[in-house]
Amino acid sequence: MKPHTRRKGLVLATLCATMFMAMLDNVIVNNALPRIGQQLHSGVSGLQWVVEGYSLVYAALLLTGGTLGDRYGRRRVFLTGLAVFTAGSAAAALSGSTGTLIAARMFQGLGAALLTPGSLSILRHVFTDEKERARAVGLWSGVSALGLAVGPVLGGPIVDAFGWAAVFWINVPIGVAGLLLAARFLPEFAARTRRLDLPGQALSALGFGALVYALIEGPARGWTDTRVLLFAAVAATALPAFVVVEARSADPMLDLRFFRDRVLTGAAVSGFMTSFGMFGAAFFLPLLMQDVMGWSPSDAGVAGLPMTAMIVVAAPLSSALTSRHGPRLPLVAGLALCAAGLGALSLYGARAHYAQYVWVLLTMGLGMGMTFTPVSIAVMQRVDPARAGMASATLNTLREIGGVIGVAVLGAVLGSRLTTTLADSLHRLGAPSELGRPLPGTAPDNTAALPAPVRDAVNAAFIDALHLALRCGSAALAAAALLVALLLRPRPDVTPSLPDERQAPQPEAAQR
C-alpha cells in the first residue's frame, strides 16, 4: 500500500534530516580544529586525521553499505547506520584524547556509509510518480548539498559559543529524532535474496581505504615515503583485482554494467569532478581568508553564505530542468559554472575586497547546486530497484573519492609551487629558507611572528600557488563538462544499462 501524502512528507523529512547531518559532518569540524589542537594537544597530522578519518571509512565502506541494504533490507540497514552515526557523534563529543576522537570519527564514517545508500533507494520506492519523485529528489539533493555548504558557516560560531565538542553534540538530538521517525514511518521493502560478495567487499574496502590513506598521507609524508608507497601499491593491486572479481561474479556488489550506460557514466563523472574541484576549493579558501587575509573563523564561515544561498536556489531549478530536458543541460551547465568560478577566483589576491569577488561565490554555489539533483535522478530513472542501493553507493563513493583526490592533487600542485616560489623570494631577500616555515594553513596565526618582509613573501607565495591550483581545478572541470556533454548527447535508442533481472536480456545492438 502506498503511503498517503502526510506519511510521504514525514519519510522525506526524515531522510533529508539524516542526510543533512551526514553531509554536514564532512565539513563542520574544520573550524573546530584549532581549539581541538589546543585542548587535546594534537599535532598537525593528528588534526588531519580528525578530518579525514571520517572520509576514509565512509569512502571505503559505501559500496558495502549499499550491498547490505539490498541483502538485509534498506530500512533495517538505514536504522543501524543512523544509530551507529549518532553513537559515534556522542563518543566524539566526549573524547579526551586525539586517538579517541579519531576512532569516534571513523565510527561516524561507518554509520554514514550504512545509511547513505539506503536513503535514495527508500525515496525511489516511496515516491512512485515520476514528477513527484523528481521534486522529492530535488529537495533531498538540495538539503544534502546544503549540509556541505553550511558546515563552515555553522562551525565557527558554534565553536566560539559552546566549544569544539558542540560540533558533534549537534548531531545527537537530530540522530535520536531521526531514529524515532524512521522506526515509525519508513517502510520496509523485501530484501533481495543473494549471496554476500565477500571477496568483492574485502577488496573494495582494502583498495579504497589504501587509496584514501595514500592520498591523505602523501602530501604530509612525501610521495616517496615507504608507507605511502606501500599503501599506494596495495591500492594499485586491490582495485584492479576488485574489478576482475566483480566482472566474474554471478552476483557482484558492483555491477559493471552500470558503466555501460552513458548517462550513468556521465552522472558518475559529474559527481566525481564536482567534488574534485569544489572540495579542493573549500579546503583552500579558509586558509586564504584566515591565515592571509586575517579573518576570524566565524567571519570566514559567514562569507560562504552566498554560496549556500545559491545551492538552495539551484537544487529545485536543476530538478525542474532535468524533468523537462533530461540531465544533460543541468550537469554540463553546473560543471561549466564550477569551472568558471574556480578560474575567476584565481584573479583575486589578498587585497581584494569581499564585494569584488562575491559574484564568484554565487557562481560556484549555482554550479554545485545544479549538479547534485540530476545525478540522483539519473540513478533512479535508469537502474532497476533491486540494484538501486548499489548504484547509489557507487555514485556516493565516487563523490567522496573525488573530494579526497581533489584536495590531494590540488594540494600537491599548491605545495610544489609554494615551495619553489617561496625559496626564490627568500633568496632574493637574503633570508634563510627556514624562516618560511611554518607556512599558511599549518597552524593558527602562524605567520604573525615573522619579520614583515618575510611574512609578505610567504603570503604572496601562497596566493601565487593557490591561483595555480585553482586554475588547474578549473581546467579539469572544464574538460569534465565537455566529456559529459559528449556522453549525454541525444540518441534515439536509450535503454537502462541495468535492466530488471526478470526481464529478458536485451540484444546488444539495443544497448548501444
TrEMBL record:
<feature type="transmembrane region" description="Helical">
    <location>
        <begin position="300"/>
        <end position="317"/>
    </location>
</feature>
<dbReference type="InterPro" id="IPR020846">
    <property type="entry name" value="MFS_dom"/>
</dbReference>
<feature type="transmembrane region" description="Helical">
    <location>
        <begin position="401"/>
        <end position="419"/>
    </location>
</feature>
<feature type="transmembrane region" description="Helical">
    <location>
        <begin position="198"/>
        <end position="216"/>
    </location>
</feature>
<feature type="transmembrane region" description="Helical">
    <location>
        <begin position="356"/>
        <end position="380"/>
    </location>
</feature>
<keyword id="KW-0812">Transmembrane</keyword>
<dbReference type="Pfam" id="PF07690">
    <property type="entry name" value="MFS_1"/>
</dbReference>
<feature type="transmembrane region" description="Helical">
    <location>
        <begin position="161"/>
        <end position="186"/>
    </location>
</feature>
<feature type="transmembrane region" description="Helical">
    <location>
        <begin position="48"/>
        <end position="65"/>
    </location>
</feature>
<dbReference type="InterPro" id="IPR004638">
    <property type="entry name" value="EmrB-like"/>
</dbReference>
<feature type="transmembrane region" description="Helical">
    <location>
        <begin position="468"/>
        <end position="488"/>
    </location>
</feature>
<feature type="transmembrane region" description="Helical">
    <location>
        <begin position="102"/>
        <end position="123"/>
    </location>
</feature>
<keyword id="KW-1003">Cell membrane</keyword>
<keyword id="KW-0813">Transport</keyword>
<feature type="transmembrane region" description="Helical">
    <location>
        <begin position="329"/>
        <end position="350"/>
    </location>
</feature>
<keyword id="KW-0046">Antibiotic resistance</keyword>
<feature type="transmembrane region" description="Helical">
    <location>
        <begin position="228"/>
        <end position="245"/>
    </location>
</feature>
<dbReference type="InterPro" id="IPR036259">
    <property type="entry name" value="MFS_trans_sf"/>
</dbReference>
<feature type="transmembrane region" description="Helical">
    <location>
        <begin position="77"/>
        <end position="96"/>
    </location>
</feature>
<feature type="transmembrane region" description="Helical">
    <location>
        <begin position="135"/>
        <end position="155"/>
    </location>
</feature>
<dbReference type="InterPro" id="IPR011701">
    <property type="entry name" value="MFS"/>
</dbReference>
<feature type="domain" description="Major facilitator superfamily (MFS) profile">
    <location>
        <begin position="11"/>
        <end position="493"/>
    </location>
</feature>
<comment type="similarity">
    <text>Belongs to the major facilitator superfamily. EmrB family.</text>
</comment>
<keyword id="KW-1133">Transmembrane helix</keyword>
<feature type="transmembrane region" description="Helical">
    <location>
        <begin position="266"/>
        <end position="288"/>
    </location>
</feature>
<keyword id="KW-0472">Membrane</keyword>
<protein>
    <submittedName>
        <fullName>MFS transporter</fullName>
    </submittedName>
</protein>
